[in-house]
Amino acid sequence: MSDAPDQPVTQASPAPRRSRQARVVWGERVVTVGGDAPVRVQSMTNTDTVDVIGTAIQVKELAIAGSEMVRITVNTPEAADAVPAIREQLDRMGIDVPLIGDFHYNGHRLLSEHPACAEALSKYRINPGNVGKGEKRDRQFGQMIEAACRWNKPVRIGVNWGSLDQELLAQMMDDNSRRAQPWDAKQVMYQALIQSALQSAQAAREMGMDPNQIIISCKVSGVQDLISVYQGLAERCDYPLHLGLTEAGMGTKGTVASATALSVLLQQGIGDTIRVSLTPQPGEARTQEVVIALEILQALGLRHFNPSVTACPGCGRTTSTTFQELAKEIDDFLRAQMPVWRGQYAGVENLKVAVMGCIVNGPGESKHADIGISLPGTGEAPAAPVFIDGEKALTLRGDNIAAEFHAIVENYIRQRFGHAA
């Protein structure tokens, strides 16, 4: 053990990524994926794609929440016919978010027989395990790549362990059984996932696909499995990688599992676009998965989307709920205002606000924030000092602390970020 207090502590930061860069385009909107682009956020609708208005509304909600690409199911001729209408509705609403078509089993026919659908989509998701078997697989996969080349669309070759190419898996199991020391079944599964993706990518390139327009994913549902597969995948290719657990789950389980797996990989410099596949709670908005994805990237310091609010969890010193209510009010207030502020105040997403509940850490945390308030804890004087840029600026008292602090925050934003805009 080293005893060197005078040596600096290594500062943690995500490792640099080394992938190619793809371009997902609709009109003037260009979303770069990979290379030096920010890690992108994706989501997927859960509406019936045939419901043009309902799907367009949900796409709009996801886009406003922060999703930079939105995937929709294209599973029937009726759904394929609806895609251009959905795109038209979005364009009328001023929503230029690129649409990704999610194809399984019959994607080759839908893209070939519905050219308006192929053109209206900005990217195709192809699952190698669901494009057919034997010679039919090669032909049908080729039809989808041909459509991508014809319309100049990128593709995501998305392998999923729930629908892995069974012929490839069986072959690899047979090969493994002949090893002097066979691998365990899970290791063979990992290799099969990676090989399916890379072999399909190579086949697409041989058919004329631009290698810079190929994105890869190998989705599984276990945290450690996802980390293992993507570490192996990143060692073997430089394609942009799409991260996400295939069935993360519901509520806290899905949130924690996604945050854990994605954070480990992103910290290692693995991953160029993410999706949190969260099962919505009854009555919960679909946009919750986008909120969580944004929070993961912001917590890692990879991107900033909304001002951060630091708040203490509370203890025996804070039996009053005042600071909890104020923290929620401030957080809700900042999120609600961000769609407006983002266009008015450049850099406002980097704002740091602290709402603390007692004298122990309150003043210190408030000083570290851009603007902070330390509310009185149990038995403390009914006074709330406000700190601005590390200095105590004033003290609030009385029954209108929340409203007064709101006004102080708004004034600070105007003064600090208004000039930048």
UniProtKB/TrEMBL annotation:
Domain IspG C-terminal, first and last residues per copy: 309-410
Keyword Oxidoreductase found: yes
EC assignment: 1.17.7.3
A GO biological-process term: isopentenyl diphosphate biosynthetic process, methylerythritol 4-phosphate pathway
Cited Pfam families: GcpE, GcpE_C
InterPro entries found in the cross-reference section: Dihydropteroate_synth-like_sf, IspG_bac, IspG_bac-typ, IspG_C, IspG_TIM, NO2/SO3_Rdtase_4Fe4S_sf
Residue sites binding [4Fe-4S] cluster per the record: 312, 315, 358, 365
GO MF entry, a single one: 4-hydroxy-3-methylbut-2-en-1-yl diphosphate synthase activity (ferredoxin)
Catalytic activity line of the entry: (2E)-4-hydroxy-3-methylbut-2-enyl diphosphate + oxidized [flavodoxin] + H2O + 2 H(+) = 2-C-methyl-D-erythritol 2,4-cyclic diphosphate + reduced [flavodoxin]
SUPFAM superfamilies registered for this protein in UniProt: Nitrite and sulphite reductase 4Fe-4S domain-like
Keywords, comma-separated and alphabetical: 4Fe-4S, Iron, Iron-sulfur, Isoprene biosynthesis, Metal-binding, Oxidoreductase
Cofactor section: [4Fe-4S] cluster
TM region positions: none
Residue ranges constituting the IspG TIM-barrel domain according to the UniProt record: 31-292
Biological pathway: Isoprenoid biosynthesis; isopentenyl diphosphate biosynthesis via DXP pathway; isopentenyl diphosphate from 1-deoxy-D-xylulose 5-phosphate: step 5/6
Keyword Iron among UniProt keywords: yes
Enzyme class name: oxidoreductase
Cofactor: how bound: Binds 1 [4Fe-4S] cluster.
Segments for region (Disordered): 1-21
Family assignment from sequence similarity: Belongs to the IspG family.
Chain's role: Converts 2C-methyl-D-erythritol 2,4-cyclodiphosphate (ME-2,4cPP) into 1-hydroxy-2-methyl-2-(E)-butenyl 4-diphosphate.
HAMAP family documented for this protein: IspG
Protein name, UniProt field: 4-hydroxy-3-methylbut-2-en-1-yl diphosphate synthase (flavodoxin)
Gene designation: ispG
